[in-house]
Specification:
The structure holds two protein chains of two kinds.
Chain A (H helix, E strand, L loop, with lengths): L10 E7 L3 H9 L7 E6 L7 E5 L2 E5 L1 H4 L2 E3 L2
Antiparallel strand pairs in A: 1-2, 1-5, 2-3, 3-4
Chain B lengths: L9 E7 L5 H9 L4 E4 L6 E8 L5 E6 L11 H11 L9 E7 L3 H12 L5 E6 L1 H6 L2 E3 L1 H8 L3 E3 L8 H13 L12 H16 L6 H9 L10 H21 L6 H20 E3 L7 H9 L4 H42 L4 H18 L2 H17 L1 H8 L1 H6 L7 H6 L4 H7 L6 H10 L9 H12 L11 H26 L10 E4 L7 H35 L11 H11 L1 H13 L6 H9 L6 H9 L11 H9 L12 H13 L4 H11 L3 H27 L4
Parallel strand pairs in B: 1-4, 1-5, 5-6, 6-8
Antiparallel strand pairs in B: 2-3, 3-4, 7-9
Helix pairs in contact in B: 1-22, 3-10, 7-8, 7-9, 12-13, 12-14, 13-22, 14-22, 18-29, 19-21, 20-21, 20-27, 20-28, 21-28, 22-29, 23-24, 24-25, 25-26, 28-30, 29-30
Classes of the chains: A alpha+beta, B alpha/beta.
C-alpha cells in the first residue's frame, strides 16, 4: 500500500521510497526513511496536496509523490 | 591566501534548517547593519552582519541560506556548504553556529551531523525550547552536548534569551583549534567506498577527510567547484561503479546515496533516544485547528483571496498619502532649486534629470515597504507555506511551484518587489521563469496610462448593459491580458529554454507563531536599503541619460514662441525627438506617430512618464496628470489631415494600452532582474521578448481593428 491510500489519522510505518533520484533523496533527507513512523493529518481530494506528520513535523506533498512512498498495510 | 586571523574579523557562519528562527537570531546578533549582496554568479542572497565580542574582537556574521541538507543538489546547498568550508571568495568559517529547532529535533540533528562531519569549530543554538515543552518533550541538553561533542546552548530567538551565552561560546570557539571531524555513520562495507575515494584524492594531490569525501561523492557534480580534474575523474569513476552496482541489485538494496541517509538517521534516532524524553501529553494543538480552515481547498482559498485583497487595498490606499508626500517633496525641492539657481543646464540637469530620477525611486518606496511588511508577516507567522500549498493546483498547470504565486501577485503593485519576492522559490529555473514573467502583471505604474487613454477615448462611450462602464471593462481586460501573457510565457519557457520537470511540492508546514516586531522591522529596513541603494543607482543614472536625450542638441526656438512652445520645439528637435521620428516607420503600423514615439521612448524610464511626456509633446506643459482635461482635449483636437478624424482614435488608444500591458519599459525592473540573475543576458532576453510580443499584439489589435472597420 502507498501513502496516497492511507486514510486520515491512521499511523503507519514507511517501508520503502520508490520516488526516483533527487525527489526520493530529498524525501529521505526530510526523515522519510524506511522504518519511520508516519501519520496522515489531512487530505483534500485527488488534485490537492495532502498533509502528513513525520518525526514531529508537518509536511505537505502531492499525491503523485505520496504514491511513490510504500507503507506498511 | 586567507589573511591570518589576528588581522581580520572572526568569520562566523549561521546555518540551519528553514523555519528554525535562524534569521531572527541573525537580526538579534547583528542588528540593522546587515549588508546584502549576491554570491558571485548565483542567485543566492548573502547577508553579512557585524558584531563585537565581549573581548573586543570583531565578528563577521554570515547568514547561510536555510536548507535541510548540506549535500549539494542546488545552488543554495552548494553555497551553504561553501559558507562553512570556504569558497566564493570566503575562507572557511572560523566558527559555525547551527540553529536547531528543539521542537523538531530529529530532522535538525540530521543537519547537525552533516556539519560535524566537516570538522569546523561548531556550537549548536537550540531554539524553540518553549515549543518543545508545549509538545510534551524534555531535552537533556547536557546529554546532547556530550553525545555531539560540541556546546549546545538553549536560546529563545524572539526574546533574545540565551544569546549572551551563545556569544560567549563563539568567543571561546574562535580561539580553539578545529576539532576532529565526526566520522560519518556508515555501514562497514560503505566505509571501504570512502577509503577508495580518499585514496584516489590523495593520488590526485588533494587529500580529504572522510566527511569531505562523502560530500564530494554524494553531491551533484555540477555543484562541485574548485576540484582538480584528476580528482574529479577519480570521483566520477567511483560513482559509475556505484551506479553499476545499484543497477545490478535492483530494488533489493538501497543505492549508496540513500544508504548514507538511512545510516545518518539511524544515528539521529540513537541520539534522540538518549537525549529526548516525553514528559506529558502535547498541549492543545492550535496549528492543526487553524490549518483545518486555512488549508481547506475551498475555505482556505476564499480566505487567501480575502487576505490578499486586504493587502492590496492597503498597498494602494495607505501608500497613496505617502506617495503624495514624496511627490510634493520632490516638487518643493524642484521649486527650491528653481529659485536658488539661475536658469541653465545645471538647473535642468538637477531638476529634470537627477531629482526626477530620485523621485521616481522614492515614490515606489511606500508601496514596496507595505508589500514587504505583508510578505514578512505572512512568512514569519508560517502562513506563506500554506498559501503555496493552496495555490499549487493552479500553478502546477503551467509547470510552476505553488510558491510562484506570491511574486506574481505582488507584481500587480510593482514588479520590483515582486521579483525580489521570487527568492522564496528554491528551484533556480522556476525562480528564473517567475522572475521573467512577473513584469507582465499590470503594475500600478501602468494604471496612469490606462486612465489617461480611457479618459481620452472611452469616457464618452455609453455603458454596457446600462451599468458597466466601457472604461472599467477595458481596464479589466488589460489586467487579464497581462495574466494570460504571464501564464502563457511561463508555460512556454518551462517547455523550451528553461525545460525542467514541475518541481515536487515538499513544503514544511511550520507551527504558527507570532512574528517578532524587531525582526520584522530589521527585515523591512534591509529591503528598503537594498532597493534605494542598488536599484536606485541604476534608475537615477538612466533618468539622467533620458533627460540628456530630451535636452540635447540645443536648438533656438522661434522668436515668437512662449515657454510651452519653446519647450515643445526643443523636445521635437532633441535627440529623443529625432529618435521619435526615426522609430515612426516601426510604430506606424501600430497606429502610433512620432509624438507617441517620443512618449514611448520617455516611458522606458518609467511607464507613467508617458503621461508627462505626451503633455510636453502636445505642448500643454509637464504639470499634468492622468486625469488632466487639458491633455485629453489636446489629444482630441489633433486631427489627422487625411481622415479628418482625431489621430488619437479609440483603436489607437486600445493598441497603445495593449502595447503597455506587454512591453518591458521599466528600468527599475531591468535593474532588478540584472541584480537577481547576476548577468545582463536575462534582462536583455526579457526586453527583446516582451517588446517583440507587445509590438505584435499592438499590430494585431490596430490592423485587426481596421479590418473590422474601426478607425
Amino acid at each position: 500500500m502507498t501513502l496516497a491510500d492511507v486514510p486520515i489519522a491512521l499511523a503507519t510505518t514507511i517501508r520503502w521510497i520508490h520516488a526516483p533520484g533527487d525527489t526520493g533523496e530529498r524525501l529521505m533527507e526530510l526523515g522519510l526513511v524506511p522504518g519511520a513512523p508516519i501519520r496522515v493529518v489531512a487530505r483534500h481530494g485527488a488534485s490537492h496536496p495532502m498533509q502528513i506528520e513525520v518525526r514531529g513535523f508537518r509536511l505537505s506533498l502531492r499525491l503523485t509523490e505520496a504514491a511513490a512512498i510504500e507503507v506498511d498495510a | 591566501m586567507t589573511p591570518p586571523l589576528a588581522s581580520r574579523p572572526l568569520l562566523v557562519a549561521l546555518a540551519g534548517n528553514p523555519n528554525t528562527g535562524k534569521t531572527s537570531i541573525f537580526n538579534r546578533l547583528s542588528g540593522a547593519r546587515a549588508k546584502v549582496a549576491n554570491y558571485p554568479g548565483v542567485t543566492v542572497e548573502r547577508r553579512q552582519g557585524r558584531l563585537t565580542l565581549p573581548s573586543g574582537a570583531k565578528v563577521a556574521l554570515v547568514d547561510v541560506p536555510g536548507c535541510y541538507s548540506l549535500t549539494a543538489r542546488s545552488a543554495e546547498e552548494e553555497v551553504a556548504h561553501a559558507a562553512l568550508t570556504g569558497g566564493y571568495d570566503d575562507p572557511p568559517a572560523d566558527v559555525v553556529v547551527i540553529v536547531a529547532d528543539a521542537s523538531n529535533l530529529p530532522r535538525n540533528l540530521y543537519f547537525v551531523l552533516q556539519v560535524l562531519e566537516l570538522g569546523r569549530p561548531t556550537v549548536v543554538a537550540l531554539n524553540m525550547m518553549d515549543v518543545a515543552r508545549d509538545h510534551g518533550l524534555a531535552i537533556d541538553v547536557a546529554r546532547l552536548e556530550r553525545e555531539l561533542g560540541v556546546p549546545v546552548i538553549p536560546v529563545v530567538a524572539t526574546t533574545g534569551e540565551g544569546l549572551p551565552s551563545l556569544v560567549m561560546a563563539i568567543e571561546s570557539l574562535g580561539r580553539a583549534t578545529p576539532p576532529v571531524p565526526r566520522t560519518p555513520p556508515l555501514l562497514t562495507s560503505d566505509r571501504a567506498v570512502l577509503d577508495t575515494v580518499a585514496e584516489a584524492l590523495r593520488t590526485a594531490n588533494r587529500p580529504a577527510t572522510a566527511g569531505e569525501c562523502l560530500w564530494l561523492l554524494t553531491s551533484e557534480p555540477t555543484h562541485i567547484t574548485s576540484l582538480p580534474d584528476t580528482a574529479r575523474d577519480a570521483i566520477a569513476r567511483v560513482r559509475t561503479q556505484l551506479d553499476a552496482e545499484a543497477e545490478q541489485v535492483g530494488t533489493s538494496r538501497l543505492p549508496f546515496n540513500r544508504r548514507v541517509i538511512v545510516a545518518r538517521y539511524a544515528e539521529v534516532d540513537r541520539l534522540v533516544a538518549e537525549a529526548v524524553s516525553r514528559t506529558g501529553p502535547a498541549a492543545p494543538d492550535w496549528t492543526t485547528r487553524i490549518d483545518r480552515v486555512l488549508t481547506h481547498p475551498r475555505w482556505g482559498l476564499a480566505l487567501f483571496v480575502l487576505a490578499m485583497s486586504v493587502v492590496f487595498q492597503a498597498i494602494f490606499t495607505w501608500a497613496e498619502p505617502l506617495m503624495g508626500l514624496v511627490e510634493r517633496g520632490s516638487q518643493a525641492t524642484a521649486a527650491a532649486i528653481g529659485t536658488a539657481l539661475p536658469d541653465g543646464v545645471l538647473k535642468e540637469l538637477l531638476v529634470q534629470g537627477l531629482l526626477a530620477g530620485v523621485g521616481n525611486v522614492l515614490v515606489f518606496l511606500p508601496q514596496i515597504l507595505l508589500l514587504f511588511l505583508a510578505i514578512t508577516l505572512l512568512e514569519d507567522t508560517g502562513y506563506m507555506a500554506r498559501a503555496a500549498v493552496l495555490l499549487d493546483r493552479v500553478m502546477r498547470r503551467v509547470g510552476l511551484h505553488g510558491r510562484a504565486f506570491v511574486p506574481l501577485l505582488s507584481s500587480f503593485a510593482c514588479a520590483s518587489p515582486g521579483i525580489m519576492a521570487a527568492r522564496t522559490i528554491e528551484a533556480p529555473r522556476d525562480r528564473l521563469v517567475t522572475t521573467l514573467v512577473a513584469p507582465f502583471m499590470s503594475c500600478s505604474a501602468r494604471l496612469p496610462v490606462y486612465t489617461m487613454v480611457i479618459g481620452a477615448v472611452f469616457a464618452s462611450a455609453p455603458p454596457v448593459l446600462g451599468v458597466l462602464s466601457v472604461g472599467g471593462l477595458v481596464v479589466t481586460a488589460m489586467y487579464f491580458l497581462g495574466i494570460a501573457a504571464a501564464f502563457g510565457t511561463a508555460w512556454l519557457l518551462k517547455r523550451t529554454v528553461l525545460q525542467a520537470p514541475t518541481p515536487p511540492l515538499l513544503v514544511e508546514l511550520p507551527t504558527y507563531k507570532l512574528p517578532a516586531p524587531r525582526s520584522v522591522l530589521i527585515a523591512l529596513w534591509s529591503r528598503a536599503k537594498v532597493f534605494v541603494t542598488q536599484t536606485g543607482r541604476t534608475i537615477v543614472t538612466l533618468s539622467v541619460i533620458l533627460w540628456a536625450l530630451m535636452a540635447y542638441p540645443r536648438v533656438e526656438p522661434p522668436a515668437a514662441a512662449d515657454a510651452h512652445e519653446a519647450a515643445r520645439y526643443q523636445l521635437e528637435h532633441s535627440a529623443a525627438g529625432t529618435l521619435g521620428h526615426a522609430v515612426e516607420p516601426l510604430i506606424a503600423p501600430l497606429g502610433f506617430d512620432w509624438r507617441i514615439g517620443i512618449g514611448l521612448i520617455g516611458s522606458f524610464a518609467a511607464r507613467e512618464v508617458l503621461v508627462s511626456t505626451l503633455g510636453q509633446v502636445y505642448g500643454v506643459g509637464s504639470e499634468i496628470d492622468a486625469e488632466s482635461v487639458v491633455l485629453r482635449e489636446a489629444l482630441l483636437r489633433d486631427i489627422h489631415p487625411e481622415t479628418g478624424r482625431p489621430r488619437f482614435s479609440p483603436l489607437v488608444g486600445l493598441a497603445l494600452m495593449v502595447f503597455f500591458v506587454l512591453a518591458m519599459q521599466c528600468l527599475a525592473t531591468v535593474a532588478i532582474v540584472r541584480r537577481e540573475t547576476g548577468t545582463w543576458k536575462w534582462p536583455l532576453v526579457m526586453i527583446v521578448y516582451m517588446n517583440g510580443l507587445a509590438w505584435v499584439a499592438a499590430l494585431v489589435t490596430y490592423q485587426g481593428g481596421r479590418l473590422l472597420g474601426f478607425a
